[in-house]
Write a structure and sequence with these properties.
The chain has 100 residues and is of the alpha+beta class. The protein contains 2 helices and 3 strands. The chain has a 3-stranded mixed sheet, covered by helices on one side. The longest helix is centred in the N-terminal third of the chain and has 14 residues. It starts with a helix and ends with a strand.
Length: 100
């Protein structure tokens, strides 16, 4: 049995060379990754933190998701380039905008 091993290996290799290869579909161009840019939101600082403000801020920043952060709010440190964080002060007004 062992003396036929080289023959079996050679035969198996030749069969593998004749096997049809799977064709992969052409990759479609990927959409550019969404990102968040906080600079255009400077004029909204000091505004009252409302749903309307959040909607406007998301549209102007290009973010896909957002979260509120009030005083003393614990936030995760995971980085998400498409996320806008609206940081509020004690009066519920926007103190700053952060992306990530």
């Amino acid at each position: 049995m062992i003396r036929n091993l080289p023959l079996a290996l050679a035969f198996g290799a030749s069969l593998a060379a004749c096997a049809p290869t799977a064709t992969r579909p052409a990759a479609s161009p990927a959409a550019p990754p969404a990102g968040c840019v906080a600079a255009p939101l400077a004029g909204l600082i000091g505004s009252e933190g409302t749903v309307a403000l959040a909607t406007t801020a998301m549209a102007q920043s290009g973010s896909r998701t957002m979260r509120w952060a009030g005083p003393g709010t614990a936030l995760t440190m995971d980085y998400r380039p498409d996320r806008l964080t609206i940081v509020l002060d004690e009066q519920g007004r926007v103190a700053r905008f952060d992306c990530g």
